[in-house]
Amino acid sequence: MRGETVNSDTYIRTVTEFRNHFKQVWPHKNLAEILLKHDNARPHSSSKTWEAITKFGWTMLPYPPISSNLAPSDFHILGALKDAVCGTMFESEDDVIHALSTWLYEQDEAWYQQGTHKLICPWCKTVEWKQTLWKKQSIESSHHSS
User: Is residue 57 part of a domain?
Assistant: First the structure.
């Protein structure tokens, strides 16, 4: 996949590889319990991608149109990962991949759960904001149609 343009097909292949790896690492986990949160880039939000991921039985959390505080790459992992590799000089791309893969694998399940739970509050705030906006628009619409 290195050097390939990321489109729906390459993204689906990556997610499928993740699913297969997940099944190997945590065979006792119910794959239907996976909540997938990603941004709204075209490969992530295409109908082809949604169809493939839905077949996995995963729940896809909607990505609000205005929510910079919910960027998946901004929560939990990147800060700790940056601290872990700070000052490391890598000789090759393979060394980087190996170091990052090793670090990600070494994190325990509770650490990942903690990071996922940190998303709940900002996500709820965004949903509440959208509901408030929708109610406001509904009220304004009803006043204009009267």
Answer: yes
Q: How far is CA 10 from CA 1, 69, 72, 75, 111, in A?
A: 7, 27, 19, 24, 28
What the block records as the tokens of 35 is: 């909540």
How many domains, the chain?
Answer: 1
pLDDT of residue 95: 93
Of 6-10, 49-53, 67-71, 111-115, where does mean pLDDT reach its minimum?
A: 67-71
115 part of a folded domain? no
Which tokens in the block code for residue 37? 């949160």
Note down the domain range covering 42: 1-63
d(CA 96, CA 2): 14
Q: What share of the chain is helix, strand, coil (3-state, %, to 5)?
A: 65, 5, 30
* E strand map for the chain: 35-36, 59-60
57: burial class by Cβ within 10 Å (0-12, 13-18, 19+)? Answer: exposed
And the tokens for 47? 């109908």
Name the nearest CA neighbour of 36 among 51, 53, 22. Answer: 53
pTM: 0.46
